[in-house]
Amino acid sequence: MKSIILASTSEYRQALLKKLGIPFLAAAPNIDETPILQESAQALVIRLSHEKAKALSQQYPQHLIIGSDQVCVIDDKIVGKPHNFENAFKQLKAASGHRVTFYTGLCLLDSTTGTFNVQCEPFDVYFRQLTDEEITQYLHKDEPYQCAGSFKSEGLGISLFDKLSGRDPNTLIGLPTILLLEMLRQHDVNPLLD
């Protein structure tokens, strides 16, 4: 079995991959993540997921490399990580009472052959109507300033929603594990049989 590299330093992606019981190394891909003018959210995450995996292919020439990228879309606008309270408050205020879509790109690259599979997995979050006080209290408790969309669904963020809609709730955390497992099985990697 080829060794697996996760092209990410995200603690959330690493935690999801650890839960699968698959041994891996994590490495920073160090790529420019600037969107291209007029690039759709889906095209952006597909491109960046592939670029992240490809960026590590020379350093890890006989590996399976996982690249992933995620964006949040509110009112047809791509929203990034808030980085601070003020931006997070604005994001949650804009999301209140609305459907917000997350697009997560996933790439599995075989660095031995250069072949890769890259896909985009959507996930919808329906926010309930939130008061300013609820948003403020939530942000102080969960501090989701490094999370696209300004919440942690695996934490208290679940209290912000009316419903979730998508194939895999792990997609919301940043790594669509059902899709990843499908891709890995094509390379004879199956945590149930290893």
Descriptive report:
This protein has a single domain (2-184), classed as Alpha-Beta Complex (Maf protein). The protein is α/β, with parallel strands linked by helices and 194 residues long. Helix 3 packs across helix 4. Helix 1 links the parallel strand 1 (3-6) and strand 2. It has six helices and seven strands; from the N terminus they run βαβαββαββαβαα. It is globular.
Features:
6 helices, globular, alpha/beta, Maf protein, seven-stranded mixed β-sheet, 194 residues, nucleoside triphosphate diphosphatase activity, 30% helix, 7 strands
Number of strands: 7
Beta-strand proportion? 25-35%
pLDDT average, as an integer?
A: 95
Radius of gyration: 17 Å
Oligomer: single chain
Count of runs of 4 or more consecutive helical residues: 6
The helix/strand order is EHEHEEHEEHEHH
Distance between the termini: 9 Å
Structural class, judged by helices and strands? alpha/beta
CATH architectural arrangement: Alpha-Beta Complex
The CATH topology: Maf protein
Shape: globular
Characterize the largest beta sheet: strand count, sense, and whether it forms a barrel.
7 strands, mixed
> Which parts are unreliable, with pLDDT below 50 for 5 consecutive residues or more?
none
